[in-house]
Amino acid sequence: MLGFQLDAIYHTSIELEGTEYVYDGGINAIQPGSSHLGRPLERIHLGSTELPLEVIIEYLDSLREIYTPQAYDLFRHNCNNFSNDFSTFMLGKGIPEHIANMPQAVLDSPFGRMLQPQLARMVEQRKAQQGGLLGIQNGQQQANGAAASIVEVSNLQALNAALQSAASKSAIIFFTSATCPPCKALYPLYNELASDHGKSVAFIKVDISRAYDVAQQYAVSATPTFTTFVHGKQQESWAGADAARLRSTVKLLVEMAAGPSHPHRLLHLPHLSNPDSKAVLFTKVPPLPKLLSKLGPAANNAAVQGMKHFIEARSAEGPAMATLPDLPAFSDFLATSLAELPRELLFTVVDLFRCGLIDPRLSGYYAEEHGHKTILAILGAVNSNSETPYALRLVTLQMACNLFSSPLFPDQILGQAPLRTAITLLISSSFLDDAHSNVRVAAASLLYNVARENSHRRRQLKETLPEEDQVELAASVLEAITQEESSTEALHGMLLALGLLAYCMPVEGELIDLLRTMEAQGAILAKKNHFANEPLITEVGAELLGKGLVRR
After folding, report:
1. Distance of alpha carbon 146 from alpha carbon 105, whole angstroms
2. Please, are residues 331 and 376 in contact by the beta-carbon 8 Å criterion?
3. Is 401 a catalytic residue?
4. SS3 letters for 463-501?
5. For every one of its 552 residues, what pLDDT tens digit does the chain have, with 9 covering 90 and above?
6. Are the C-beta atoms of 397 and 442 separated by less than 8 Å?
7. Among 45, 77, 79, 309, the one annotated catalytic
8. Half-sphere exposure of 540 (CA within 13 A, CB side)
């Protein structure tokens, strides 16, 4: 009936370091073989990865917004797609093609198309009843430390008691319910955060389907909802399965529980102290046929067409419906293009790459590429030539910004000298482009992304950019600020980037000495003459560099 031999209908998962990772009602981590499906009929050794487990877990976190319970599709976004993406990240290759391609092969047959509506209804019914097609639940393997760090309450009296016991530190309440698949998708992250930060933050979980009085008291009508407290005072509430916001909020709660340890935290700096700030990404996708037409016959390369299809599917139907292309093949095509294409046409390939890097699966793959050879080759092509064409420089800056779509790339940019040096040179040289304000805007955006990550690390007492790099970037952007006279957008980005470089900087050191020596406060306040309505002039110039540079 299908028109071909179908040996099996495959359900797949990835087993790593004694844990089975599977997509069903979200990404689940379970004891291998512990689900009701039992032990697998076949185990295939895909290879060995050299990636640290913490990097792998962080990559999985970045996939949770793509592999959601709602996004599950039996034919186009299923457990096999997840296994394939996960394997590609760790090993540079996916699962066997006959498994990965099986759902699409069925869908392409007349019989498969006939069955699709009925199967889709069945999947939706299962998802509504048990959170996923197969009903595999997270928490079948949960660290005792995490479980012990979370207080589960079932009524208002118990919640008040839990908050009272946490009055001397921070607290976060996770309002959930038994029929909330997005809540279940966040359980592993909440457990992890509780295990890591349970001494500084009280982690509380409330099932509002049982604790009606709590739901009424806190006006919770949707799950997941989170509410935070610091020293007994309620701070903020928000709804939605936003893993990145949950993680950043907990980190801020850890800081707030300890009290202000830096004088800058006592200043009024709303743009600089915001824990929910996002990296700047350039997400606009141009008409790809028109872009690729400039490549001539090279546009028909299978790797190029695969990337084009991925970007178009992601733009039209969302990331869940976009299957990763052959990334090693595309890397080879990029390398060949850098060596053979005329420089005035290189921007087409880099811009195509930029569009792909919007997706954290793709940027995560290149974050862990050995030696970052693909990214460094592109940056080198721009940095090595003072006559780089305008279009190539612009899309390279935008491409570098999109590296921050993955939580893995900031670690590489700040921690790996070759990549950090290339990024720094790209930013500094691009600020010198007096003729193109959008190049300066893109350079400011890239520096903002770097400075934002550096600021987060500084506040978390983690290793930051080497001080000499911070000084070089600060000097470069301060000079650019003094020269900027035409673009409000460029000035805004430059001020924000400089502010984040300086926010909570060591009170003694080369960076603060540089800002004093270059009279940064006066240089910034002078911009009022040309940009009277720019609020960051006051925030960075008067508040941060005025009060913040005072010797104590």
Report:
1. 42
2. no
3. no
4. CCCCHHHHHHHHHHHHHHHHHCCCCHHHHHHHHHHHHHH
5. 545 455 556 789 999 887 888 888 788 777 787 776 777 778 899 999 888 877 887 788 788 889 888 888 877 888 889 999 999 999 988 998 888 877 776 667 776 667 667 766 766 676 666 655 665 655 444 444 444 578 888 889 889 988 988 887 899 999 998 788 788 888 888 988 998 888 889 999 999 988 899 999 999 989 999 999 988 889 889 998 888 889 888 988 887 776 656 788 778 899 998 867 899 999 999 999 999 999 999 999 999 999 999 999 999 999 988 999 999 999 999 999 999 999 999 999 999 999 999 999 999 999 999 999 999 999 999 999 888 999 999 999 999 999 999 989 998 999 999 999 999 999 999 999 999 999 999 999 999 999 999 998 887 667 789 999 999 999 999 999 999 999 999 999 999 999 999 998 988 899 999 999 999 999 999 999 999 999 999 999 999 999 877 665
6. yes
7. 79
8. 31
CATH of domain 14-130: 3.90.1720.30
Which residues fall within 8 angstroms of residue 7, CB to CB, at 6 or more apart? Answer: none
DSSP-assigned letter for residue 431 = T
Query: Is the CB of residue 271 less than 8 Å from the CB of residue 541?
Result: no
Separation between Cα atoms, residue 356 and residue 344, nearest integer Å: 21
Distances (CA, A) of 34 to 28, 29, 31, 146: 12, 10, 5, 20
- The Cα–Cα gap between 486 and 312 comes to 36
Cα 398 to Cα 354: distance, rounded to the nearest angstrom: 7
CA distances from 84 to 260, 268, 356, 386 (A): 45, 47, 17, 41
Torsion, Cα 157 163 166 168, to 10 degrees, reads: -120
Strand order of the β-sheet with 201-207 is: 150-153, 201-207, 170-176, 225-230, 233-239
Q: Is 264 in the active site?
A: no
CATH of domain 144-259: 3.40.30.10
Query: CA-to-CA distance for 36 and 531, rounded, in angstroms?
Result: 64
Long-range contacts of 33-40 (CB under 8 A, 24+ apart): 34/140, 34/141, 35/134, 35/136, 35/137, 35/140, 36/134, 36/135, 36/136, 37/11, 37/134, 37/136, 40/13
Give the angle 211-217-221 at the CA atoms, nearest 5°. 70
Separation between Cα atoms, residue 506 and residue 485, nearest integer Å: 31
State the Cα–Cα distance between residues 413 and 418, nearest whole angstrom. Answer: 9
Structure-token match 């990636």, residue found = 51
Q: How far apart are CA 477 and CA 498, in angstroms?
A: 7
